[in-house]
Amino acid sequence: MTVPDSTLDPKLKKLIRQDVQSMHAYAIQDSAGMVKLDAMENPHRLPAALQAHLGQRLGALALNRYPDGRVNDLRRALADYAQMPEGFDIMLGNGSDELIALLAMACDVPGGSVLAPLPGFVMYAMSAQLQGLKFIGVDLTPDFELDEAAMLAAIAEHKPSITYLAYPNNPTANLWDDAVIEKIIEAVGAQGGLVVMDEAYQPFASKSYADRMPRHGHVLLMRTLSKFGLAGVRLGYMIGPKALIAEIDKVRPPYNISVLNYECALFALEHRDVFEAQAQELIAQRAFLFDTLAALPGVKAWPSHANMILIRVPDAARTFDGLRKRKVLVKNISKMHSLLANCLRLTVGTAEENAQLLAALENSL
């Protein structure tokens, strides 16, 4: 049997955009047999009784039919959960990644651009590039705060179509100064752009922007159920003024939320007390983990409002490899941005997982 050539046929290569050929696909680390602390997942599984209950519900679904009006039950449940203001509407995505891509598609006008602080979530830049929009990254300060002057200057110069503000930010896990955020929102609004407040880590944060949403007609609130505890379900949602959501929703593919997705999400919201208890346990573990990390010689740890902690070590590559050899998987982000030199991002796990992480880290430094 002939083994297919791994090199793309030059005739077919001509069909692929040059900028796409130069890109790297989003990398997923192999986690088999590892303590998985690299992707900010909730480490807790459903209790056995709820697993059985959910299994019965999913088994009874009409998988032979396209998703039906039940998806609107989920929209209403999420609107209630997020305390959506009057006059606003909600849009669902197959994870927040799809919502980010759809926003770029909807706002792809001549001269359009996307702006976001760096380091930040990689999908903001990737979605812009794939849609042919210019991406403007504005560096944070060395202590990972918003550079107010640089942000306002970039907004004035580029007049971005979309400005992303992660609240808290990934990978730095901090909540930025509210007064600076308001100035940025007002500046974007004055030149006719959108601001997206990305609250992916809201279950672990001490505050939300949601109660300030009605002040502005150009601000969207984006969240995901991934950090809530449903990373495998892929369900994101975005809230904004009804007329604005109606326009963006026009580019959403039909039936983008499967019957399995929306039934799992509805089930989770019906049992939100279980997931909220898990979040509180992770917040407690985060405090323990931070205090312990901060006391380790040679380790700099930054306070977190998410389910991850950013640390700087003397040699990130060596420490990362040492952790892998000890079957603990974290994220080496030291090459992601110059501000992240020798930094690792650690997901907060269970008490047992965190103990394994700390023991492996002490032996890997």
Plain-language structure description:
- With 365 residues, the chain is of the alpha/beta class.
- The chain has two domains: 10-47 and 273-364, Alpha-Beta Complex (Aspartate Aminotransferase, domain 1); 65-271, Type I PLP-dependent aspartate aminotransferase-like (Major domain) (Aspartate Aminotransferase, domain 2, 3-Layer(aba) Sandwich), CATH 3.40.640.
- It is built from 14 helices and 13 strands.
- It has helices spanning 10-13, 18-21, 48-59, 70-81, 96-106, 122-131, 148-158, 178-190, 226-230, 242-248, 259-270, 272-294, 316-325, 351-364; strands at residues 35-36, 88-93, 113-118, 134-139, 162-166, 194-198, 219-224, 236-241, 300-301, 308-312, 328-329, 331-332, 343-347.
- The strands form three sheets. Strands 2-8-7-6-5-3-4 form a seven-stranded mixed sheet. Strands 9-10-13-12 form a four-stranded antiparallel sheet.
- Helix 13 (316-325) crosses helix 14 (351-364).
- The longest helix is centred in the last third of the chain and has 23 residues, at 272-294.
- The chain is globular, with a radius of gyration of 21 Å.
- The mean pLDDT is 95.
